[in-house]
C-alpha cells in the first residue's frame, strides 16, 4: 500500500477523523510505502499548518513505519506520460502511480480523488 496523505497528522484538517479511521486499516498492511516526493509534500504541509515539532513527530513515524521509495530519473518520463494522460494529476501523484505499477501495488491511502478511475488503483479513503 502506498500513502499519499498528510491528513493523519494535522488535527484541524478536514480529513483528520477519516484519516484516523483509515490508519487502523493501513496499520494492518504488511508493507507501507511512501515516495520521497510525498514525504517532502507531507512534511512541508505539516510545517506550514502546525509547525516544526509536528514535523519531527510525523517524520519519525514515517521513518519507523514506511519504506521510502526514492524515484529514479528513469521513472520520470513514465510519470510525465501519466500526467499527460490524466491531466488532473500532480507530478508527485503521477510518480506515485508509476511506483505503484513497478511494485505491483493496487491500494493507495489518499483523500485526493484524482486517483479515482485510474486503471489498477483502489483509493482507500
Explain how this protein is built.
- With 125 residues, the chain is mainly alpha-helical.
- It has one domain: Rossmann fold.
- The chain has five helices and five strands, in the order E-H-E-H-H-E-H-H-E-E.
- The protein has a three-stranded parallel β-sheet, with no helix packed on it.
- Helix 2 runs antiparallel to helix 3 and helix 4 packs across helix 5.
- The protein is globular.
- The two termini are 13 Å apart.
- The model has no long low-confidence stretch (mean pLDDT 82).
Summarize the structure.
The protein is globular, with a radius of gyration of 14 Å.
Fill in the keyword field for this structure.
125 residues, mainly alpha, Rossmann fold, three-stranded parallel sheet, two-stranded parallel ribbon
Shape, please? globular
Number of distinct beta strands: 5
- CATH names the topology as Rossmann fold
Largest sheet, spatial ordering of strands: 1-4-5
Fourth CATH level, the homologous superfamily: 5'-nuclease
The chain-level structural class is: mainly alpha
Q: What series of H and E elements makes up the topology?
A: EHEHHEHHEE
The rounded Rg comes to: 14 Å
Helix content range: 40-55%
Q: What secondary-structure arrangement, pairings included, does this model have?
A:
Layout: E1 2-3, H1 16-26, E2 33-35, H2 36-50, H3 52-65, E3 67-69, H4 75-86, H5 91-103, E4 107-109, E5 122-124
Parallel strand pairs: 1-4, 2-3, 4-5
Amino acid at each position: 500500500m502506498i500513502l499519499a496523505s498528510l491528513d493523519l497528522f494535522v488535527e484541524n484538517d478536514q480529513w483528520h477523523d477519516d484519516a484516523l479511521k483509515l490508519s487502523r486499516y493501513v496499520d494492518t498492511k504488511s508493507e507501507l510505502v511512501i515516495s520521497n516526493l510525498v514525504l517532502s509534500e507531507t512534511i512541508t504541509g505539516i510545517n506550514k499548518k502546525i509547525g516544526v515539532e509536528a514535523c519531527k513527530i510525523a517524520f519519525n513515524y514515517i521513518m519507523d513505519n514506511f519504506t521510502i521509495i526514492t524515484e529514479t530519473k528513469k521513472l520520470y518520463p513514465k510519470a510525465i506520460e501519466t500526467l499527460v494522460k490524466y491531466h488532473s494529476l500532480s507530478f508527485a501523484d503521477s510518480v506515485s502511480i508509476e511506483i505503484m505499477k513497478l511494485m505491483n501495488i493496487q491500494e493507495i491511502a489518499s483523500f485526493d480523488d484524482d486517483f479515482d478511475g485510474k486503471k489498477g488503483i483502489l483509493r482507500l479513503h
